[in-house]
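ARCHIVE RECORD
Type: protein–small molecule complex
Small molecule: nicotinamide-adenine-dinucleotide
Source of inputs: curated submission
Record status: active
Notes field left blank by submitter.
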Amino acid sequence: MPGRLEDKVAIITAGAGYIGTAITQSFCREGAKVVIADFDPCKWEEFRTKVQVPDLNKVSFIKTDANDDSQIREMVKQVMATHGRIDILVAMVGGSKDALIHKMTDEQWDQVINLNLRSMFLSCRAVVPQMMEQKYGKIVLMSSRSYLGNIGQVNYSAAKAGVLGFTNSLSREMARYQVNVNAVVPGFVDNPRLQAMPEKFRQMRIELNPFQTAAEPRDVAEVILFLSSDESRQVTGQSLRVACW
Ligand SMILES: NC(=O)c1ccc[n+]([C@@H]2O[C@H](COP(=O)([O-])OP(=O)(O)OC[C@H]3O[C@@H](n4cnc5c(N)ncnc54)[C@H](O)[C@@H]3O)[C@@H](O)[C@H]2O)c1
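STRUCTURE (tokenized, with ligand):
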């Protein structure tokens, strides 16, 4: 039986990170060709040697700084030259640099806004002309429960709230081209880096999960798979919460 994404071409920015790896695995299981656009080749090395996928030949890596417009455009050009189309973009690049507002530097503000918002804008802008021409495309963007507010995260909360506004507008621009644009809003997703945080803070995050547990990357990946497949073809402009209320 063909997979749910059989032969679809997917770009995943930050696709070699913790959640990105789980998405790549889910997409591969369903038959997609995945291009990981990440700026860290070591992560790709780790992926190639440690991660199980049905066919590693269907996964490729293009070293890309998602905040550099020329690198994003070059990556999209390479994907087109190899595959001839782009069906799916999962824009995952993001991260935080926490500080209370009176201690937050301009740099911390700019870095987090650029990492989460500008990178998403640049990757969407680069792929939409192709999706418009194809009259087909799925875009999934990465917000976070933190958009509801956390102490020390005015930059990250503002950026992740921005992702939702961006999703609303882009979905309205793209619907006439049969391109779906949705966002996921994960709560706490476990990974080895977060396992190292003090137990008290870990517990506080777990308590925000309706099931009182830390979600695994695959919990987010399977929701993104749904939003990237034709099963959700009538779903656009939505934000889906995972592992949080
Ligand atoms: N882990 C969580 O609990 C959680 C919860 C909600 C939302 N998120 C969001 O999920 C996304 C991924 O999180 P993760 O936990 O998998 O992070 P991660 O740190 O495991 O992965 C981030 C990846 O992004 C890559 N990267 C960083 N800057 C880049 C750039 N400029 N260009 C290209 N690649 C770059 C890194 O090399 C890394 O592979 C982020 O947007 C994050 O805000 C995470």
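CURATOR ANNOTATION: The two ends are 35 Å apart (CA to CA).
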